[in-house]
Amino acid sequence: MRRRTAVVVTMVAGALALVAAGCGGGGKSSNGVQGANHTLAQSGGKKGGTITVLSEGDIDHLDPGAAYYQFTYAITYVTQRPLLAYKPNSIQPVPDLAASMPTVSKDGKTVTVHIRHGIKFSPPVNRAVTSADVKYAIERGFDAAVGNGYAGAYFGVIQGAPTNIGNTVPSISGIQTPDKYTIVFKLSKPSGIFVSALQEPLTAPVPAEYARKFDKGKSSSYGDHQVATGPYMVQNNAAGKITGYTPGRQIVLVRNPNWNPKTSWRPAYADKIVFKEGFDPTVGAKQILNGQADVNGDFPPPAATMKQILSNSSQKSQLEFTPTAGSRFVALNTQKPPFNNKYVRMAVAYVLDRNSMRLTRGGAIDGKIATHFIDPSFGSHGFNQAGGYGFNPFPSPNNSGDVAKAEAMLKKAGFKSGKYSGPQVTQVADNSPPGSNTAAVVANSMEKIGFKVKTISVQHSAMYTRFCGVPKNAPNICPNVGWLADFHEPQADLDANFNGKNILPANNVNWSQLNDPKINALMEKAKVELNPEKRWAEWGQIDKMITESAAAIPWIWENGPTLYSTKVTHASELWNGGEPDVSFMSVK
Amino acid sequence: MGAYIVRRVLWAILLLLVVSFLTFVIFNVFPSADPAALRAGRNATPALVEQIRRNLGLDKPFYTQYWYYLKGLVEHFNLGYSYYNSESVKSEIFSRLPATISVTVGGFIVWMLIGIPVGIVSAIKPRSILDRVMMGGSLVAISAPVYFLGLVSLFLFAKGTGQLQWFGAAGSYVPISQNPGTWFDSLILPWLTLSAAFAAFYARMTRGNLIETMHEDYIRTARAKGLRESRVITKHGLRAALTPIVTMAGMDIGLLLGGAILTEIVFNIPGVGRYAYLAITNSDLPAIQGTVLFGAFFIVFANLFVDILYAFLDPRVTYG
Questions:
Q1: Could you give the ipTM of this predicted complex?
Q2: For A20-59, what is each residue's pLDDT tens digit?
Q3: Residue B209: which of B239, B187, B182 has the closest Cα?
């Protein structure tokens, strides 16, 4: 799971119930994906000029092998060329470094990719990219000095991929390069999502002869010396040392002189892209509206600002909303009482006031109330198969909770009065808004049916890494968890969170510790299904089963708001929660 | 005096050691995030998390980690490397120090230029309308949070976002070596915002001290000798009244050199304070430790400097 954009602290201020117009949209793009209705100029833009992107925080890593953050990807994908990538309005990967879509053998265990000719690394490397560069790039993802967060999850299926991670770049026998422009992946078992995973930036080529010296030791410094293959590169000096990145201050992208537009579908209109960091969202949004900057990077404009924009007919078109390919949910610990009882969990699912929970993040403007896990942006990739907007096993009037139905569930669980009368339950929650407010709503809702909820408040990251992600420390309830799929395959959305095989002693993300043999078995079957239609149907069914188990209760499918100045054309990345694709934007 | 200074420096070093130890204890005892898990990401395998833990030295007992930290600090003046982005904490702090010094020194000049004269005027005309207006105004300035005042000033006076586009906008800071004009323009609003509460506080303190001093016997004697009132105030009254202000000023400058966090955040100034804020947000212990130690260093040594200065300002003070 990639990290989300910055925490929406300021959105709580208003807790605004905003009109639905323009808030999450209901439009349908050409690929059948629901939720986005954006304008996009794919051609005819004006060449030249500078685009300025504002952010509140910094990227996580410049190194394409380590980058794993929604905002960072807005830079990585225009400076690096993975085998596959996305056009802004799409969730369907298309060949980027690859010359064509990968071919998969009948048994699903061999994936062959041909790469384009004529792609060169930026200075100082200046040579043509070969398949060996892709092999090295993926192999270094298994080096702890690089510290890639998803290599094991998606590329661990390659034959010879190490399970013990050290501080060296391993040689992986299952990645073969029969010639300079062909790369063959031998898999230990079929994988329904391997081809989709080839869009991850880990597959962007890295020249071994140049990078190896930076990859030595306990922490790779290749990011500070990286070379590019995309239309832009982070500004560097003649020796290759990055000069365009000042942590926490700014990132300057300039044109890559070795990029050949004939090999790419990116129009790359602007000459220069400047990412200015450290902006307060209120100030940043104002600067964009006034044309001092062009688009927001990692922060959503404050809810009050968005309300003003949407009520102003001349500014309304400057704001776009994109689904973020994920959901927020309340995880109930299924491994200990009282939530090891399905009916108790179902009672909680009925009684939760999801409408009030959503208000803690800004109301309708923040997204639609989630009724299952696969996000609307998946469209035909599993969302529709899970029942789309029509599937809601725990309905309540105005989504504000249904005490009567909850009490009926508690009676089935053995609480004759319909009220929970067992021991106090504990939740570990964020110690700051909006998460702390959401947790308060959860506690209030549960108290309506007799629960006494003790709340332990900690920093958001501590909530994950010390409590909810460590089963031996896990509380009964984790009210502030959520997941963004790395790409639009339901496996990337559900497997880590709900497969019993993924319960780990630390860094566990199956927060409800759901270990249902039937669901596990269906997941293992769906994972090796190579036919996408069948695979998505199977995952849709799995989504329904997980939701009905009430091991976790989804409550919002979030939107990513993107605010543009009037000086630029729009290009919001549907595949990346609305981050701007600066290679498709142009100065008017 | 020499022995006193040596003794104070040794105490200061001990104090810094205690501060660094306490920071370490707080980070380890209280439930902060697991840096290895944060660095690895939520989809990482347990093997990767454990290897990163070893790489960061987090697999070792807390006291061993602290020993390595101290060793690096003493032998190489090494403040460690960020868990978040692997950058050198020392480089990060020193690259941000000029911005923080710019904010602090400029702010200090502004608040002294406003606070002291206002305090004097109020003191020599106590209970006058002017005094009431100035003290009432200072109460408002003390009460206004920096964050709020900063945003209001940006929306009123900053280029681009303000109603009156007079001064530099948030994020417009450049080093003085790059463009002195832009540097000055970008810092006007931060200086005014930062100095508002300080100026008000100093005005009230100056007023109180001066009123008290002006009732001393030696002031009456000075007047009886026929000295002009202005000379009585400046030569005899202010000198005594300002001595405690010097102590406060030293402490405040030391505090702000450790990072004017809110001012740097609102105005997007890449200083040590903003770095400290990001370090806390990211549970980045080496960066937290570095900024805390750095701030403590300035406070401790500013305090020492002020104590030494006292001997020159107040003839009654001697150090043995």
A1: 0.80
A2: 333 333 333 333 344 445 555 556 789 999 999 999 988 9
A3: B239
The Cα A325–Cα A373 span in angstroms is 10
> C-alpha A137: how far from its chain's center?
22
Beta carbons of A530 and A192 less than 8 angstroms apart = yes
pLDDT score recorded for residue A24? 31
Eight-state DSSP code of residue A393: S
| pLDDT more than 90, % of chain A | 83
SS3 content of chain A, % helix, strand, coil (to 5): 30, 20, 50
Tens of pLDDT, residues A56-90: 988 988 999 999 999 999 999 999 999 999 999 89
Using CA atoms, how far apart are residues B182 and B159, in angstroms rounded to an integer? 12
Q: CA-to-CA distance for A440 and A444, rounded, in angstroms?
A: 6
Contacting B residues, span 114-143, partner chain A, CB-CB under 8 Å? none
Overall size of chain B counted in residues:
320
Cα-trace Rg, chain A: 24
Q: What is the largest CA-CA distance in chain A?
A: 77
Q: From residue A104, give the alpha-carbon distance in Å to each of A90, A111, A509, B9.
A: 23, 5, 30, 71
Q: Are strands A272-276 and A50-54 parallel, antiparallel or unpaired?
A: parallel
What SS3 class is residue B225? coil
Selected for mutation to probe chain B from A465, A480, A509 (highest B CB count within 10 Å) is A465
The residue behind tokens 């694709």 is A581
Q: What is the pLDDT of residues A552-563, one digit of tens each?
A: 999 999 999 999
A139-165: burial string, b at 16+ Cβ within 10 Å, e else: bbbbbbbbbbbbbbbbbebbeebbeeb
Helices (H), A360-516: 403-412, 435-447, 460-462, 490-498
Which candidate from B44, B86, B283 shows the least CB-CB separation from A152? B44
- Chain B residues with CB-CB distance to A249 below 8 A: 270
Q: In this structure, how many other beta carbons lie within 10 angstroms of the beta carbon of residue B121?
A: 17
Question: Residue B242 is inside which H or E element, if any?
Answer: helix B238-257
Give the pair of three-digit tokens for residue B270: 């890449």
Count of beta carbons in the 10 Å neighbourhood of residue B24 = 20
Strand (E) positions, A439-551?
A: 453-458, 477-484
Q: How many CB pairs under 8 A join A and B?
A: 152
Q: Which long-range contacts (CB under 8 A, 24 or more apart) does A258-263 make?
A: A258/A120, A258/A121, A258/A122, A258/A123, A258/A126, A259/A120, A259/A122, A259/A228, A259/A229, A259/A230, A259/A231, A259/A232, A260/A118, A260/A119, A260/A120, A261/A231, A262/A118, A263/A116, A263/A117, A263/A118, A263/A119
Place of tokens 């990251």: A461
Helix (H) and strand (E) counts for chain A?
15, 18
> φ and ψ at A381, to 5 degrees?
-90, 25
Classify the phi-psi angles of A156: left when phi > 0, otherwise alpha if psi is within -120 to 50, otherwise beta: alpha
My answer on whether omega of the bond before A170 falls inside 30° of 0, hence cis, is no
How far apart CA B206 and CA B240 sit, in angstroms, is: 10
Q: Which of residues 188-227 of B touch A (CB under 8 A)?
A: none
Summarised one tens digit per residue, pLDDT across range A505-517 is 888 999 999 999 9
Of A104, A84, A81, A103, whose CA–CA distance to A93 is shortest? A84
> Residue with structure tokens 């800071």?
B173
Q: Which residues contact B256 (CB under 8 A, 6 or more apart)?
A: B100, B103, B104, B107, B108, B194
